[in-house]
Design brief:
With 517 residues, the chain is of the alpha+beta class. The chain folds into three domains: 35-250, 2-Layer Sandwich (Endonuclease, Chain A); 264-404, Endonuclease, Chain A, CATH 3.30.870; 406-513, no CATH class. It is 26% helix and 25% strand. The strands form four sheets. Strands 2-10-8-7-3-5-6-11-12 form a nine-stranded mixed sheet, with helices on both faces. The longest helix is centred in the middle third of the chain and has 18 residues, at 185-202. The two termini are 22 Å apart. Residues 1-16, 120-131 and 419-424 have low confidence and may be disordered.
Length: 517
C-alpha cells in the first residue's frame, strides 16, 4: 500500500471500497474460433532445454514444470533462488516460493520491474485474494523493484531458465510462451552478475510490511561484484542484454555478457539468413530510426527470396496504426503474417540453425537504455528443431486475419477503488455504473493518449458515456486478449473521438478511482 493510500485511509470522511463489475458480451459477427490443438511431441534429446507454455500442456517441458524443478533442486541442494519478472501475480508461483522459504530462509530474491501493479494486481484476481504478494515478505523472501526491468528468468546457482512469460496465470498456463533451460556455469555466472547489478544498483524500492519503501540513491550499494552471488571474472557466453549502459557496467574489466546489445544481435541474425526467417513476437512496431533498420532488413531478405513468416497475437490490445502499417508493408512484399490467439512468446529462428529466445519485443523499448531485457541464442540442433516444431504448430493453427478487426464487444471487469481522494463530487455511484453495464447491449472502448471513453449502448437513445483519465500511457497489463488500465473518472470530456483508437479486446480490466462522500 502506498503512502498516499495510508493518508487517505486516515481521513474519516473517506471510505475504502473494493468492487468488481463484470459482464461478458458476444461477438457481433460469426467468427471461426481457433482450436487449442495439443502441442507436438518434441525431441527429448535436448533434455527439456526448449520449454514452453501451451493451454493443453502439462508435461516436463512446460515453463511452470521447469519452475517447480528449479525451485525443488534449490531446496534439495540448499542453494538460493534468483527470480526476475516484470509482473508477479500468480498464486501457484507464490505457493511454490512460500513452501521453499522454510528451507531457503533469506536466500530467495525476487526482482520485479513494475512496483505498483505487481502489488495491486493481486486484488483483481479472486484466486489471489488470500495469497497476496505481501505474503512473500512474512516468509523471509526478499523483494525489490528495478523500474523497467522487463527481463524474466529464474536461477538456483546450478541451472537457470530464461523465459518470455511473466509470473502471471495467463503466461504460465495459457499464452504461448518460450523458454530455454541452461546448466552451463558461465551462463549462470553471467545471470548472477546481472542480477547483482540490478539488485544493488538499479533497485529503487523494496517491499516491507504493507508497502514499498524507497531506497535512497546514496544508500544503494556501490560494490555489488561479490554480493552475494558468485560469478566468474570472465565468461564466453551468449547472454544478451538490451541496454548498452548495463552492458558497459557489467563488462567493466572483463566480458561477462555479450558486447552486442539485443538490437544488434537481431540485425546480425537477420543479415545472416540465407533461406528462412521465422519470427514470433508479441509486438512489432517499426517506427522511424533504428527500428526501421529491422524492417528494411526483412524487406531486403524477402527480395532475395528468403522465406519469412511472422506470428503475432490474433486478439491484440495494441495494434496501433503504426503497427498495422508496418505489417501491411511487409505483407505486400511476400512476407507472410499470421495471427495466433494470445501469443506472448518472442523468438526468432534463422535457417533452421539458430534460435533467439528473448524477453523483449520489437518496439521502442528494444533501443531504450532504461529498459532491461535479455536474450539467448541457441545453436543446439535438437533445441532448434524443437523450437521449429512448436512454431510450426502455432503457425498451422493460426488465423489469416486479426480478430481485432472483428467488432467483438468487450468483456468488462471493472475494479472500483476509492482509497485516494480524487475529486470533490461523485460523477456516478458504483451501483448506478453497475446497473448501466449489466443492462447494456454493447460497450465500445476508445482511447487517445491518456483520455479514454467507455461508450455504453443501452438499446434506446444515445449511448451513455463514461470518460476516464488514465494514470499512465502504457497499460498496466497487455498480455493476450486482456487490456488492464488504471485511471480516474474524468469530469471533463477531453477525448476527441475522431483521433481516438477503438479497441475490440475481449477482456477490458479497469481500475477506476474516486472519493466517496
Amino acid at each position: 500500500m502506498t503512502e498516499k493510500t495510508k493518508l487517505s485511509r486516515r481521513n474519516k470522511n473517506s471510505k475504502l471500497i473494493f468492487h468488481n463489475i463484470n459482464k461478458v458480451f458476444r461477438s457481433t459477427k460469426n467468427v471461426d474460433v481457433q482450436e487449442h490443438n495439443p502441442p507436438p511431441a518434441l525431441d527429448p534429446k535436448d533434455e527439456y532445454s526448449f520449454c514452453f507454455t501451451h493451454i493443453n500442456n502439462d508435461d516436463e517441458r512446460s515453463i511452470i514444470g521447469q519452475y517447480k524443478k528449479i525451485i525443488n533442486d534449490a531446496v534439495a541442494n540448499n542453494t538460493y533462488l534468483l527470480i526476475c519478472s516484470y509482473y508477479f501475480n500468480n498464486y501457484e508461483a507464490i505457493e511454490l516460493l512460500e513452501k521453499a522459504s522454510s528451507k531457503l530462509k533469506g536466500k530467495i530474491y525476487v526482482l520485479v520491474g513494475n512496483q505498483k501493479d505487481t502489488n495491486i494486481s493481486f486484488n483483481q484476481h479472486l484466486e489471489c485474494m488470500d495469497k497476496g504478494f505481501l505474503s512473500l515478505i512474512s516468509n523471509g523472501i526478499l523483494v525489490r523493484c528495478a523500474n523497467n526491468a522487463h527481463l524474466k528468468f529464474i536461477s538456483n546457482g546450478n541451472e537457470c531458465l530464461i523465459h518470455t512469460t511473466n509470473l502471471s496465470t495467463q503466461g504460465l498456463f495459457y499464452n504461448p510462451e518460450f523458454g530455454v533451460r541452461l546448466t552451463s556455469k558461465p551462463m549462470i555466472d553471467a545471470l548472477n552478475r546481472l542480477f547483482s547489478y540490478l539488485w544493488f544498483k538499479q533497485t529503487n524500492s523494496m517491499l516491507l510490511n504493507d508497502g514499498w519503501d524507497t531506497i535512497p540513491e546514496n544508500d544503494r550499494a556501490e560494490i555489488y561484484v561479490n554480493r552475494p552471488f558468485r560469478h566468474t571474472s570472465k565468461s564466453k557466453n551468449k547472454l544478451i542484454v538490451s541496454s548498452k549502459d548495463v552492458i558497459r557496467e557489467i563488462n567493466s574489466g572483463a566480458q561477462i555478457v555479450s558486447n552486442d546489445c539485443l538490437f544488434d544481435v537481431i540485425v546480425d541474425l537477420m543479415d545472416s539468413a540465407q533461406n528462412v526467417i521465422d519470427i514470433a513476437m508479441y509486438k512489432i512496431v517499426f517506427s522511424k530510426g533504428k527500428l526501421e533498420k529491422i524492417k528494411q532488413k526483412l524487406l531486403e531478405k524477402a527480395k532475395d527470396s528468403v522465406k519469412i513468416r511472422i506470428l503475432i497475437p490474433s486478439v491484440k490490445v495494441k495494434i496501433s496504426k503504426f503497427m498495422r502499417k508496418s505489417l501491411d508493408q511487409l505483407k505486400h512484399k511476400n512476407i507472410e503474417v499470421k495471427y495466433y490467439r494470445e501469443l506472448h512468446g518472442k523468438c526468432i529462428i534463422v535457417d533452421n540453425k539458430e534460435t533467439l529466445i528473448m524477453t523483449g519485443n520489437m518496439d521502442k523499448y528494444l533501443l531504450d537504455d532504461t529498459s532491461k531485457d535479455i536474450g539467448y541464442v541457441m545453436k543446439n540442433a535438437h533445441f532448434v528443431q524443437n523450437s521449429i516444431k512448436f512454431f510450426n504448430h502455432i503457425w498451422d493453427d493460426a488465423a489469416d486475419e486479426c480478430e481485432i478487426d472483428v467488432p467483438i464487444d468487450l468483456h468488462i471487469n471493472l475494479i472500483i477503488r476509492s482509497y485516494e481522494q480524487i475529486s470533490s463530487r461523485i460523477p456516478i455511484s458504483v451501483h448506478k455504473l453497475e446497473n448501466k453495464i449489466h443492462s447494456s447491449k454493447s460497450i465500445r472502448f476508445y482511447r487517445d493518449n491518456l483520455e479514454c471513453l467507455l461508450s455504453i449502448e443501452l438499446g434506446s437513445g444515445r449511448p451513455w458515456k463514461l470518460y476516464i483519465k488514465l494514470h499512465n500511457k502504457e497499460p498496466v497489463e497487455d498480455q493476450g486478449d486482456t487490456l488492464a488500465l488504471s485511471g480516474m473518472i474524468n469530469h471533463h470530456q477531453d477525448l476527441k473521438r475522431s483521433k481516438a483508437e477503438s479497441f475490440s479486446v475481449r477482456n477490458l480490466s479497469l481500475k477506476l478511482l474516486w472519493k466517496l462522500r
